[in-house]
Amino acid sequence: MPDPAVTRPFPVMFIHGLWIHSSAWHEWQNLFEASGYQTSAPGWPGDGDTVQATRENPSALDDVGIEAICRHYAALVEAMPTKPIVIGHSFGGLIAQELLANGYATAGIAIDPAPIKGVKTLPFSQLRSGLPVLGNPANKHRTVSLTAKQFRYSFGNALSEQESDALHEAWTIPGPGRPLFEDATANFTRNSPAAVDTHVAARGPLLLTSGTEDHTVPKAVTLEVLKLYGDTSSITDYHEFEGRGHSLAIDSGWKDVADVTLDWLDSQHLETTPAHSTAS
Hints:
Blueprint: E1 11-15, H1 26-34, E2 38-40, H2 51-56, H3 66-78, E3 85-89, H4 91-101, E4 107-111, H5 124-134, E5 143-144, H6 148-154, H7 161-171, E6 175-176, H8 178-184, E7 206-211, H9 219-228, E8 236-241, H10 254-266
Parallel strand pairs: 1-2, 1-3, 3-4, 4-7, 7-8
Antiparallel strand pairs: 5-6
């Protein structure tokens, strides 16, 4: 583990995924700050300040897509004095890869990330997890909420029903349908917002992770993403969490995941870079 007495010069920006509010990163922030990092966990454009506020105004997220989310976080980075480490879960992991590839981050960690363009694997569990949105074309332009049963299948399948329901009640918010439609059609869209340049030679290090029981982003999907990075000279590492589902960043085992990310970051010997020196 990193030495908690050391003040680290890298800010850490946490990026949440679809259906989970940014406040779910609170325990991660406490742990990282105790290890010497400054942290932030800004929401997507349209998110309310709290879970309840977002639930009460879901239309603020209508038609928010991947490009808008990326631009939102890129603008936040440009206002920082130093490029951050970006840590994203699910769609936040896709966004983290976009930011890293385009020069907006010092390093990136993508936890069970949504697939980027080029991934052809489509396991049944991933298809079923997306059906609450993809099953109705009208959902592309509006927000959709998950029921406790849908959440249990997509996120909490490796948990007890009691823990899954508690996480659903505590952290879930309505999510825009557009990112899922954009991701689902990425391989058929010439300028897809889900495309990531996996061959950037000068980017910072990237860690991809997968839970072996993940229904939403199965292990086979993340391994295919790893292969897409195969020809780059930049560091791309992979870590697997045995027996863990898509809830791994917010359930009772979150600290095991956070400790792995802290140890990996400590091994990278990162150098600070002004945030204004981003790629165009």
